[in-house]
Specification:
Strands 3-2-4-1-6-7-5 form a seven-stranded mixed beta sheet. By secondary structure, it is of the alpha/beta class. Helix content is 33%, strand content 20%. It comes from Micavibrio aeruginosavorus (strain ARL-13).
């Protein structure tokens, strides 16, 4: 069994004159990402490899999560994760080395939502319904994948174990 954590970056600002790739997180986004890292730690969701889009908002999201989980997990910043389609995200995951059992993907919507839906075949009905409805910023799906290697990952094969949603499961406090 392998675990896959699919995370949409936290809430981003849209400052005038800043291109999309360099948009920063809002104060709430920073707080939510930190709170998600703390919740992941309590739930023992520990990736041993992370795939992350090179966009500023995904890097900032990951940095806040790593404040709790620690900075030692190897991270692959792939330019192909920025503006990737669901299929391209799927291909990136399938290329992850089999030595990694628990991986996290930090990227963008609508592709991360599409990927979570594409890979999920089983799960509690209430979580499956929530997954269909929304994948707001800083939402993370935790999937159990019954595979021996990432290369053998197939659609609708994973079990949705948890869907962590800001404002429902966690909310970061803004610290001045």
């Amino acid at each position: 069994m392998r675990q896959l954590y699919i995370l949409r970056h936290a809430q981003a600002a849209s400052p005038q004159g800043v291109d999309d790739k360099h948009r920063p997180l809002t104060r709430q986004g920073l707080a939510d990402a930190r709170a998600l890292g703390q919740l992941m730690d309590r739930m023992e969701f520990k990736p041993d490899y992370i795939l992350c889009s090179p966009a500023r908002r995904t890097r900032q999201t990951l940095a806040k999560i790593q404040e709790t989980l620690g900075p030692d997990t190897p991270v692959g910043y792939a330019s192909g994760l920025y503006f990737a389609t669901t299929g391209q995200l799927y291909d990136h995951i399938k290329r992850v080395d089999s030595k990694y059992r628990n991986i996290m993907l930090v990227s963008h919507n609508p592709s991360v939502h599409g990927l979570a839906r594409f890979l999920t075949g089983l799960g509690p009905p209430d979580l499956l319904m929530l997954l269909e409805l929304d994948y707001r910023e800083c939402t993370m799906a935790a999937l159990d994948c019954p595979i021996d290697s990432w290369a053998s990952l197939l659609p609708a094969q994973c079990d949705l174990k948890n869907l962590l949603i800001p404002g429902k499961d966690f909310r970061g406090e803004i610290v001045d």
